[in-house]
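Researcher: Go.
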Amino acid sequence: MRDRTEVLDFARKEFGSEPEYLWARYPDYAVLRRADSGKWYAALMDVSREKLGLPGEGRADILVFKCDARMVGSLLRGGRYLPAYHMNRSNWITAPLGAGIPSEETAELLRLAYELVGPKRGR
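Model: Structure:
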């Protein structure tokens, strides 16, 4: 997805999720959580390009989302995704917004993230 507005619109329409702004120190950081489990499935942040290992100066908008641990390695090898920023790197991953990742690919990964944090079934 190209920007945070597109991500938030998708989350609202697809899951009924509203962003939560939890930190006074970081007023633009938003988390998205499932209403039924209360767990986060994604976070939107703007982070220094230097901290992310990206070229250039300034800040980059990123989407950090829950990911199946079996997929993390292959997504990272593809070169478009980054290791999770400030989350567990074995089951979270970072997508720089506006970096050419197809919107439908991001949408599918957000759907997976949403499912991963849902209530456990069959217990």
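Model: The chain has a mean pLDDT of 94.
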